[in-house]
Amino acid sequence: MTNFIKNTWYTAGWSSEIGAKPAHRKIIGEHVVLYRGESGNLIALEDKCPHRFAPLHKGKIIGDLIECPYHGLRFGDNGKCVYNPFDPNFSPPNATVKTYSVVEKDTLIWIWMGEEPLASPEDIPDYHWLNETDKYAMTSEGMIEMPVNYELIIDNLLDLSHGQFLHPTTLGNTAMAGGTTDSRKEGNTVHSDRLNYDGYMPTLFNNNGVIPNETKVDYWNDLRWDPAGSYYLEVGITPAGEPREKGVYIGSAQLLTPIDEATTAYRFILFRTFMKDSEELTRGIEALVMKAFVEEDEPMIADVQKRMNGKDFWSLRPAILEGDRAAIFARRILEKLARDEENSQGECLD
After folding, report:
1. How many CB atoms lie within 10 A of CB 331?
2. Average per-residue pLDDT in the chain?
3. DSSP single-letter state for residue 294
4. Cα(64)–Cα(67) distance, rounded to whole angstroms?
């Protein structure tokens, strides 16, 4: 059973997704309604009316209030019922819904699922690149729902050694067998950098307009992961033996939000500095990445989940390779954060 971290920032969507119409999200097993009030404020509440438990996201927005579609109770951004159509002078004292801290930053909507006093926007991982549309060419804002546990996706993303086998014609190739990987932990952040030397160009970089396809290249992958599911990856190539400044690269933001134990919302966007005006290249990169995610990564992770058969990762005594260090760091961090939350709750009960 997954012990989800609550005191952390998750992505609830792209800023462009949330407007005046209420939107439903299920995050770590909790149903949430998000909407923009008439004032423009972004509001996140529990998606369950405390009267007869109707889903609030099926209601309508009136000013900054949301009206229950069942009996018309209205709730403010503080979660309290502020209008009872059957008796405007009375609202039951327990007619309240849970509120969530929510922040818009870097074109994303971030939500804090835990104790609101602990929510600090300064702790939101940095994706400032997503604001720099004048500097980069961006793909579309993507989202796929994967029928797998988010920790298994983290294992996959933080493993920079599987590209030659799982993605031989998309994100990697057989020339990636060698190379070096440096994985390290800085607080609760994991970094992992992989370098492959003097190999063939990965398909992802074909026809980049800077380096001819037949050129032997050095290939780098630099990643950063922050709990619970915030991931940044930069992949680049440069002519073999040349500094990175003579090469090209593609950056990506990849955000995992657990829906429940067996399902994950996977949001992603890629950006690049080369051939910025080529819409054809942008669409080609999107298609290649979708193939890698949906036809290669997802089936493999789903197969892994089936073979694990609901058992705890460590109880299966996995063989650990050098390339697993980053993923192991991440698992240990998540385990510690979960223990800390459990201990904190225990102290409150005492």
Report:
1. 17
2. 94
3. I
4. 10
